[in-house]
Task: inverse folding
């Protein structure tokens, strides 16, 4: 009986983690999703203040904009969203401590990484959903999260 309980618990937890790694691309219009951004000490932008007001079907980074990484915000975004897949490597995502994988990824350069994180990416080992399934994250939030993961992994983008 104990083994059955553990098995059911593991399956439920796995489903929960995987659901956070692949969004359906639809915006969530409930109060709790709008409040999440406000609960991060005002650093993360909520849906009303989102820099890129394009619909979720046409997400793309603003061309020619220069971003400066805010690693403190990047850590908050990582803890809120990215950790679901990047902590352990769920669905083929590079685990945060897998320096070898991150070195290969960093070779693409920060502009390409930012583009892939915003628009989604299908690679040899897994899938990165658009915006990591964070419909209320701004382009800056995504940039900050990518910069935070690279720094934590111990690599620099070209």
Result:
């Amino acid at each position: 009986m104990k083994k059955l309980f553990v098995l059911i618990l593991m399956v439920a937890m796995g489903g929960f983690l995987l659901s956070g790694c692949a969004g359906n691309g639809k915006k969530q219009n409930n109060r709790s999703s709008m409040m999440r951004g406000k609960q991060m000490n005002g650093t993360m932008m909520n849906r009303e203040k989102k820099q890129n007001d394009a619909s979720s079907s046409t997400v793309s980074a603003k061309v020619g904009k220069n971003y400066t990484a805010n690693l403190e915000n990047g850590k908050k975004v990582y803890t809120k969203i990215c950790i679901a897949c990047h902590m352990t490597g769920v669905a083929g995502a590079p685990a945060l401590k897998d320096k070898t994988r991150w070195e290969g990824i960093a070779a693409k350069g920060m502009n390409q990484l930012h583009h892939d994180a915003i628009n989604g990416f299908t690679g040899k080992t897994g899938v990165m959903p658009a915006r990591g399934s964070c419909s209320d994250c701004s382009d800056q939030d995504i940039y900050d999260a990518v910069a935070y993961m690279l720094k934590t992994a111990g690599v620099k983008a070209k």
Summary: The chain has one domain: 32-153. Strands lie at 121-122, 127-128.
